[in-house]
Specification:
By secondary structure, the chain is of the alpha+beta class. The protein is 25% helix and 21% strand.
């Protein structure tokens, strides 16, 4: 047994069964995947664009795989510097092992080494600077006065807070304690538009469909036919519906006592009418409730007696009314997103795909004003055309391994029968038309190939009988009717729900990324019209609703940056909330001793030759120099190991386990066992990266930092590259790169305080059904607030609430107690990734687990720290547009530190929008912070200042980040966890040979087998996931 592996042997390195080697059990998901001929690729919708410009430590590419969910359903938020539309869309880039979780694209690589001219004054002189010599930004509506709504004047706003305090208001969430006043006042426009509606009643009806149409396209068609039914015609002009289970009417409908039953015989739009085989759907319409807009008025006014009024039924009814027009004149993709085909504005992405622009709309309650939030968005659609040509184009762009996910579920039209017939592709075959056989009754039960059948039956000589698989269009994937792709025609207006190839992703990003004023103009001049919010023929007139043409104007403030402290030297924060490392040293640098370099050779053109390669030696010398300058004394030369990986298998080894075994052997040859390994990757193979991280995190218990050989060779920006690696290595070794001045941390230091962050990542499209979700909890360990070790867990698939939260919190409190020799008196808990509809669920399910963990820390359960819980959200559509240079950066985005807590925030609850970071391109997106529990009695200024200041404490960056670091770290820890079950996250993309898929329980057991015993005992005490 090697002493380089954890376990129960005399060297205590190997833990039994902790890594599924190439000899893993044949019952594993990977074995079943191989048996089914799977060939996986881990990238998710949109594939990876250049993430080096998004992440503070971009060039080291050590972020793992970005989480998915709803791929393509949300699309891109057009022009945003961080992707919009829920979890759809794309990320990635020169971090090619990423799948698509929002990579905080507005956070570019750290500008850590610049010319001497960028050096500036010390911390005592830090302030945000605008460069007057540069061209000024272009503002949206620059010639129009930005008039603040009278409802937002100071006396009215203060009266609202006073009424809360006098009533000692209690609710599900803490009420707003006051308004923030710190910072420089600015005026902002925002993409919210005033809604005017009458004092009236809305009538809400429930619709039940039997049998239930599971396919949305069919369900929508049934509702279209319902509108034409004679029984329904008297109601048609004053009702709207969601094509699902709900009707909203402006008048009371005189229905029979047991409701109105309407039978609909289904047929498609291009058919003349139903036939004897048409399915009959029965719709039962019954009265549900009456909605009074006067109640909504009382809620919007901030009446304390309406604190617990639930506005959601009325808000959702209004959303149905507003969606009536665009759902009939556009293409609905996801929730509240509508796209409008236009050949003059669409963009070809290659791969048989094109990008379309669309708009999102959602009704939002704000103080004394109902608003509709409108934002632009972009997503990928299939191009209408021949399926074979599209598949070939997709394969040429690097999507061959994902061909199944490309075409599965696609609607096509066939014409080889002599008439047009629409079909849905259920699966992609494993064989070409020349190889795929079936028993043909028509030819005497002979076994015949698809190619031969089409030649004999239809006199069609196939052009792609060898180079493309057949497609199955039968009643189910288990009983396919095989067709050649070239006889199929892709029907128009179908959204692409798979993962874009790299080139298509880059094109999508460039197409979607616009300056703020361009985005705002699109919303006002095209979006409102496309959505029917300014149209006389929409349903709004029937309900007496109108929408304003002008964006709302709200007050904001620019919070000053904190002073950044290093061990030696001073830095200046520039107008993009960034600084450089020139002539400074880390505040707590750790010596670099007993380290190693692993050179991976996998056929890359930039691969290093080996330990004696002069280029490698020069690079290591340069890196060593940068480390020494940063205060990280390099005490020894690294041991250098080289591994030549076996070639990629064509199907026998889809997950490249043989290559990982070769890497394991190379690492075991290094003596003594290193503390940290710098890995020179040959290319962007996701299986190599994720396999390496699994091997080193779960088995070898050793830190790794990965970089591409090609990128580290480049002389341009090489010092920056080296410095970014040094930032990560110092943090992983337990060092501290920088901190803040005492005044910025004053609140945190008044009493022993711990900061938590938590997140959950879910299986992305292409995952095996039943693949578990991954939960992460991180927490600080002392009063430096620099280190956040993580607890990771597998849990039920797609469950958002953290199952094992109590034990995970205990683990974090234990490590705090060991490090600080005490327990904290205050807990600040930032929860990431929770939608608004789940806020109360967090209070009901997760908060009690946090309290239970605290009670278990001390015998008798007497430990009760004060807990504040705040949800940090990036998946919203609120954007802010400066009205003048005082509030603008050079691109027309709000300045870093912009906070807004009035005008478009909650009426009763304690929330605010903060853009702590400076965006470099597109339209920056603020983070929405929502306090759901507060025992520390934060004032608005105290929490907003704390959140802004700590955004500058992200350890591997020299800039403020868009999400408060504890939540950001939890996100990164989740993504590292995805590496460990990467096989399951990619095993469902590729077609199978018809074998029964594994059960959910089998998949979960496979995930546990891959996960092994979890993070190694040494790594789990560190920030191994950076």
């Amino acid at each position: 047994m090697s002493g380089y592996e954890r376990g129960r042997g005399e060297d205590h390195w190997r833990r039994q069964g902790s890594y599924p080697s190439s000899a893993a059990s044949s019952s594993s998901a990977s074995s079943r995947a191989r048996a089914q001929g799977l060939n996986q690729d881990p990238q998710a919708v949109g594939g990876p664009p250049d993430r080096s410009r998004w992440f503070p430590a971009g060039p080291t590419h050590d972020r793992g795989q970005y989480r998915g969910g709803g791929g393509g359903r949300g699309g891109y938020s057009q022009g945003d510097s961080s992707r919009g539309g829920g979890r759809g869309g794309s990320t990635g880039g020169d971090d090619p092992w990423s799948t698509y979780r929002n990579p905080r694209r507005d956070e570019p690589r750290s500008p850590v080494y610049r010319s001497p001219r960028s050096a500036g004054p010390g911390p005592q002189q830090q302030q945000m600077h605008h460069h007057p010599s540069q061209p000024g930004p272009t503002f949206f509506a620059a010639g129009q006065p930005a008039v603040m709504d009278p409802r937002l004047d100071e006396s009215t706003q203060n009266a609202l807070i006073g009424s809360f305090n006098r009533m000692q208001l209690r609710g599900r969430f803490p009420h707003r304690p006051g308004w923030g006043t710190a910072g420089t006042p600015v005026t902002m426009r925002t993409n919210h538009f005033a809604i005017t509606y009458p004092a009236a009643k809305l009538y809400d009806y429930t619709v039940k469909m039997e049998p239930r149409a599971k396919i949305r396209r069919i369900r929508k068609r049934v509702w279209q036919l319902l509108e034409e039914a004679p029984e329904f015609l008297p109601f048609k002009n004053h009702i709207v519906h969601d094509s699902g289970a709900r009707i909203i009417s402006s008048r009371y409908l005189p229905l029979p006592p047991n409701g109105l039953n309407v039978s609909i015989r289904h047929y498609d739009e291009d058919e003349d009418g139903p036939n004897e085989n048409s399915v009959i759907y029965t719709l039962n319409i019954t009265f549900n409730t009456q909605l009074d807009t006067n109640d909504l008025n009382c809620y919007l006014s901030g009446d304390p007696q309406f604190r617990e009024f639930d506005p959601l039924p009325i808000i959702s009814a209004l959303n149905i009314i507003l969606a009536h027009y665009p759902s009939r004149n556009g293409i609905n993709v996801g929730r509240n997103r509508f796209f409008f085909p236009d050949p003059t504005t669409s963009k070809s992405l290659g791969s048989g795909l094109e990008a379309l622009k669309g708009y999102y709309s959602s009704v939002r309650p704000t103080f004394r004003q109902l608003m509709v939030n409108v934002n632009s968005c972009t997503t990928a659609f299939y191009k209408e055309g021949n399926l074979a040509e599209a598949m070939l184009e997709f394969m040429r762009s690097g999507g061959a391994a994902r061909l199944s996910s490309y075409a599965k579920g696609l609607r096509v039209q066939t014409s080889h029968l002599g008439f047009r017939q629409k079909k849905t592709i259920r699966r992609i075959g494993d064989y070409s038309a020349r190889e795929q056989t079936f028993i043909c009754e028509e030819y005497g039960n002979a076994t015949i190939t698809v190619e031969e059948y089409f030649r004999r039956k239809y006199d069609i000589a196939l052009d792609h009988a060898i180079d493309l698989p057949v497609v199955g269009v039968g009643p189910s994937a288990a009983k396919p009717v095989w067709l050649p792709a070239e006889v199929c025609w892709i029907l128009p207006h179908q959204p692409f729900r798979g993962r874009l190839p790299d080139d298509a992703t880059t094109s999508m990003i460039n197409y979607a990324c616009n300056f703020p004023h361009v985005n705002a103009n699109n919303i006002v001049h095209q979006g409102l019209q496309h959505l029917g919010l300014q149209n006389s023929d929409s349903a709004l007139d029937e309900f007496g609703i109108s929408v304003g043409r002008e964006m709302a104007v709200v007050p904001g403030r620019i919070l000053p940056p904190p002073a950044i402290m290093y061990g030696r030297g001073q830095v200046r924060v520039d107008d993009r909330a960034s600084w450089n490392l020139r002539d400074v040293q880390f505040i707590d640098p750790k010596p670099l001793r007993n380290w190693a370099v692993l050179v991976i050779r996998d056929g890359g053109r930039s691969d290093f030759l080996g330990p004696h390669d002069p280029n490698l030696i020069n690079i290591l010398n340069g890196f060593t120099t940068v480390c020494n300058r940063s205060g990280m004394t390099v005490l020894s030369d690294p041991a250098v190991a080289t591994v030549n990986l076996p070639p990629k298998g064509q199907g026998s080894d889809p997950f490249r386990k043989q290559a990982i075994e070769a890497i394991r052997g190379a690492l075991r040859s290094i003596r003594p066992k290193p503390t940290i390994i710098l890995v020179m990757l040959s290319n962007g193979d996701k299986y190599i990266y994720t396999g390496l991280k699994s091997l080193c995190d779960l088995i070898l218990d050793v830190h790794t930092v990965c970089c591409h050989s090609q990128k580290i060779r480049k002389e341009k920006g090489q010092l920056q590259f080296f410095a970014n690696i040094a930032l990560k290595i110092n943090m992983k070794l337990g060092g501290v790169n920088h901190t803040l001045d005492h005044d910025s941390l004053r609140w945190l230091l008044e009493e022993p305080t711990i900061m938590f962050g938590s997140d959950v990542t879910h299986p992305s499209p292409g995952s095996l059904k039943g693949t578990p979700s991954i939960a992460a909890v991180v927490a600080s360990i002392d009063d430096k607030f620099a280190h956040y070790p993580a607890s990771l867990r597998l849990q039920e698939s797609r469950k958002e609430m953290i199952t094992d939260l109590s034990l995970m919190v205990q683990e974090r409190l234990d490590q705090y107690r060991v490090t600080s020799r005490k327990l904290p008196r205050r807990i600040i808990f930032f929860r990431d990734g929770v939608s608004e509809g789940q806020f109360y669920t967090v209070i009901q399910e997760e908060l009690p687990k946090i309290k239970d963990a605290c009670a278990r820390m001390v015998a008798g359960g007497g430990y009760r720290p004060k807990i504040t819980m705040c949800i940090a959200g990036k998946r919203h559509h609120t954007r802010f547009y400066p009205t003048n240079e005082a509030g603008s950066d050079m691109n027309g985005n709000p300045r870093a530190g912009t906070v807004v807590d009035r005008g478009v925030t909650a009426i009763y609850d304690f929330d605010f929008f903060l853009q702590a970071h400076g965006g470099l391109q597109g339209t920056t997106r603020p983070t929405h912070y929502y306090v759901v529990h507060d025992e520390n009695n934060f004032t608005a200024d105290a929490l907003q200042r704390l959140t802004n200041a700590t955004s500058y404490m992200f350890g591997r960056a020299t800039r403020a980040v868009s999400l408060i670091p504890p939540a950001y770290y939890a996100d990164l820890a989740c993504e590292r966890g995805r590496c460990y079950i990467h096989e399951l996250l990619t095993a469902g993309e590729i077609g199978s040979d018809g074998a029964a898929p594994p059960t959910d329980q089998q998949v979960y057991e496979d995930a546990e087998r891959l996960w092994g015993q979890g993070i190694g005992p040494n790594l789990k005490k560190t920030m191994f996931y950076l």
